[in-house]
Amino acid sequence: AGHGSGPAEDGAPPAPARVLFPPTFSVSEIKNKQRRHFMFLRWKQQQRKEKLAAKKKRRKEREALGDKAPPKAIPKTIENQRVYDETTVDPNDEEVAFDEATDEFAPYFNRQTVPKILITTSDRPRGRTVRFCEQLSTVIPNSHVYYRRGLALKRIIPQCIARDFTDLMVINEDRKIPNGLVLSHLPDGPTAHFRMSSVRLRKEIKRKGKEPTEHVPEVILNNFTTRLGHSIGRMFASLFPHDPQFIGRQVATFHNQRDYIFFRFHRYIFKSEKKVGIQELGPRFTLKLRSLQKGTFDSKFGEYEWIHKRREMDTNRRKFHL
């Protein structure tokens, strides 16, 4: 590599040495590991400078052209290159409207039932799962935590129905870490199984706000566009009372991106008439749908509406199901 730049003019500081690589040069050809790493970093730095210079040049050209500037190019992402799904819901579709008016969640959306949720765990939970359940119960109003000790889900469900619970939420764990969620809508289902990951409790979140209040939060559901996604979105919505108390300024968000459902719980603060700040309250976690089952939980004889089969379904990175 040569260090190239002409002689500096009188009084001017010397120009920084520019790395000039031969046209067929490959950093991986350098045998010395430290030298190879050093040259790679210099090469990356040069790439960044060139990219920044090209960006500045484009911006100046746009400013010079003014109104005649061509529209900005939209970068290609996996989301906007998504493979078309024939089950994508049209908001004005009469068939969808009829299905939603008659499905298992209709009494909730018609304000005929008030959500009452039982949060339970896998058998004999450890400390982290226990704390997660307690924090989840402060997010979902009218939810009650019950720690299982050897009682089968098949026996818990009839007791829940008898006591007017509308949903059963089971947090499973592996090696003391929450790793699964079973959500069963009572009394007639459906039941969804999710893989759970990236769980962060309140104390693990940086710049978190004060503890949540008892106000009913608003619920935001993003990107649940297919029929399956619609069902899952309605399932999450029916966990929270229908009329939020805006005075509490609390928001529960279920954001679907590439079939991963990210849960966040925030409080927003009005700094002025135009500026709004948000504080994350926690907890946070990520879900991935494994299956959707008709009826309540039944691992042996349950009828499945949808099961995630990796080898058959994940052939294309741009194909999503929710």
TrEMBL record:
Keyword rRNA processing: yes
Keywords, ordered alphabetically: Ribosome biogenesis, rRNA processing
Biased composition (Basic and acidic residues): 61-70
Record bears the keyword rRNA processing: yes
Major place of residence: nucleus
A Gene Ontology molecular function term of the record: rRNA primary transcript binding
Pfam families: Brix (PF04427)
Domain called Brix: residue spans: 115-298
One annotated GO biological process: maturation of 5.8S rRNA
Region span, Disordered: 1-20, 49-76
Biased composition (Low complexity): 1-12
GO cellular component, one term: nucleolus
UniProt subcellular location: Nucleus, Nucleolus
Record function comment: May be required for ribosome biogenesis.
Protein's UniProt name: Ribosome production factor 1
Species per Swiss-Prot/TrEMBL record: Corythaixoides concolor (Grey go-away-bird)
Gene assigned in the entry: Rpf1
